[in-house]
Amino acid sequence: MRLKALVILLLGITITNNVLAAEKPTASHKSVINYFMDSYMNSDYKKLKAVLSDDAVFTSNRDVRVIKHKASEVLAQMKKDEGVVQKDCNISSTIVSETDALVIARVDVNYELFDGAQQNFVIIEKNKEGEWKITQVYKVFVTSESQAKKLV
């Protein structure tokens, strides 16, 4: 009887550990990208915080200027906007480059009522603990007239 209880207990612990490990958002770069996209679409600062490095930097263009924000500033703004769902837009992602320690992804947001697009170049790095975390986000607003041109 004790052996049966011990086996059931060990089985329960093993199953619980596997389920918890599978749910960790930083276990793979793909889950980090999915959390990033979902946090954007639903203004969910908790999801973004789960996949951000403490020293992450957000860079964006405003006309001819470049603006930088710390992760804490972005999270504070998202907390104010919590629950605002993005409407009339589509979001998609593409892996630009991938190694065992670094991934560069492009997350595109296309608004139906805006002539242009928002491109987010998301830099994801594996830290010492083996977790994938976003360290940099470059948000670029591109209008149809100024689409990125290929270099020759």
Automatic annotation (TrEMBL):
<keyword id="KW-0732">Signal</keyword>
<protein>
    <recommendedName>
        <fullName>DUF4440 domain-containing protein</fullName>
    </recommendedName>
</protein>
<dbReference type="InterPro" id="IPR032710">
    <property type="entry name" value="NTF2-like_dom_sf"/>
</dbReference>
<feature type="signal peptide">
    <location>
        <begin position="1"/>
        <end position="21"/>
    </location>
</feature>
